[in-house]
Write a structure and sequence with these properties.
This protein is mainly alpha-helical and 133 residues long. The protein contains five helices and no strands. The mean pLDDT is 94.
Length: 133
């Protein structure tokens, strides 16, 4: 179930688009680990996703604070929910009957389709108007 970056995911801020492309690389790696049945690699990549999300969310939130983005509270709340779910996957992955690859895959695809392609796009014109492109 490879996922490919395309312009529908572009938010028009180069720094964030590059970070989002990094997310696609991680997701494709984890989907390959799922396909191979490699639980050890899956755990490694889940940890990398936590590191990625921590750094990326901080970048977005720092810019939102710097420029006074009006929807920062809602955006941070969504980031917190995503991070909480991701951390739960790290904690519970591999425990019998707790987390399945399909559940993680559904969450990760939702992250792309709901958060990046919809929620993040809400800030495009705001940041572009502040000179971030």
């Amino acid at each position: 179930m490879p996922v490919e970056w395309n312009e529908s995911y572009a938010v028009g801020v180069e720094e964030f688009d590059l970070q989002h492309k990094d997310c696609f690389v991680l997701l494709n790696r984890i989907f390959e680990a799922f396909k191979a049945g490699d639980e050890e690699e899956t755990i490694i990549i889940l940890d990398e996703l936590v590191d990625y999300a921590t750094s990326h969310f901080k970048s977005e939130e720092d810019a939102m604070e710097k420029f006074g983005y009006s929807e920062i509270i809602e955006h941070k709340s969504e980031h917190n929910k995503l991070m909480s779910q991701l951390v739960d996957f790290v904690i519970y992955y591999g425990e019998e009957g707790s987390i399945h690859n399909a559940e993680i895959a559904k969450f990760l695809i939702g992250w792309l389709d709901d958060h990046i392609a919809k929620t993040d796009k809400k800030y495009t014109s705001f940041f572009n108007g502040k000179g971030l492109v």
